[in-house]
Predict the 3D structure of the following.
Amino acid sequence: MSKSELRKKKHLTRHKKQLFCGYDSLDDHDITTLINVSYKLINGSKNTNELYKITFILCSLLTGRSLNSLINKDNKIIYPGEDTKFKGAALFSVNRPTMKQKSLSKIQGFAKLSNSPALILIPKPLSKILANFKKSKSNLEEKDYKKLINSFLKSINKQYKTRLTLARTRSNFHQWCIKKSVSEVVYAAISGQPISYHAGIYYTRLNNEILLKTIENYWDDIFKNQLQYKPTLPALVSTEYWGSNRVIDQHFVSMLFAFIQRNIKYHKNNLDYISLHNYFTTYTISILQLSTGLRPKVGFFEDINRFNLDDKTVIICDKGEKSRRLIKLSKSAHTQLIEYIKFIKILTKRTYYQDRNVSEELTKKIDGTSNLLSLIERDNASKKRYKISSNTLRVFKDFTQGRFPFPTNWHRHYLRSEFEKAEFNSELVDLFFDHNSNLDHKSSIFSSIKTNDLDKLADFIENKIFQSLDIKTLKSPLRE
């Protein structure tokens, strides 16, 4: 990393730390003064540039959007008519995360697909001024409006003893979101952050109502001392979704687990030990994935030593050894893992005389010298009948993709969306998925996360997700 890049990184870190400690936050006096002065000028001024600069400041305060995004005339702003359900208010149009058409066609019918953007409301008085600005032929650039805005804010500061700046005005919404534990994904959608801002944007599907409700709560807070200026939000019931199109419908997730269960029963009755092993392993992998959010990789969870059956935890290193996280297993996942180990021990004995090579490979699963959840495939390159697959992910996909062509990381999209709906702390959810977040304190000594917070996620997965999907643990299909 060059010196300039290092300086830039340090600057960004210091800036984010200000967000955490609230050093740059506006107080009630700052906000009340800005709103009062701005709305009086909007109602009395006829100077177009003055109206534009005040509108940009207020829109930045109300939505957390940057001056660049407000001035950019290419941005999508919708202006419904007075007779629509939006009552003349304007709306920012926020595009959803992109997804290749080939991927979309595969899961057509398995997920609620929507190409609709998120719609973020703008108060009616400001929407009219923005509409005029979009039509205007103003030659002023961002730097020009920035000078006008800074000059305007300095005059307010001098007269009313405030601490207003453009940066502080914009960051007020983010400050509020942090204080109220609003998800970073919700904040990013409303403030128009790019998808690269936070990985959760790509993985989460949200109902637009959640975004509208967040805006309403925020506006209630900042207009609490000046109700006469508080925008009236139209009563909207939005059935549209914003965000990930990879969130599989609950019905089809249940069907996937039921499909694997039927195959386990079928191959057990036919004494097909190899297929039985593969389907029982597939079922165990599926439960553990949905319990831990593991990234799909060649060797699922690696060896048995990653698990602590006494503490009901697993160490996950799905981005390399430098990125390690401890996840608490749900009750069903823990029980399923115990049953799976029992199954492997019994199968090792059953295959000893049928296929010594397979039996020896199964022994390695238990003693920790090979991947615990590897699958068995036919060995066409040697005289041996079967071998342990070196690419478990590929074989795993073969067992499910024919009937259920889900993305290999569908469970991460499903879990993140459920966690967001349940309003879990963003830092905790980021730790669970190993998603980068503010300053990446989630695993450091500065983190506010406690061990019992991991228990809460495990309990939620057990009592909400597994129950709603009717997922149950299966006992070892083989007995001593």
In short: The domain at 23-243 is CATH 1.10.443 (hpI Integrase; Chain A). The radius of gyration is 28 Å.
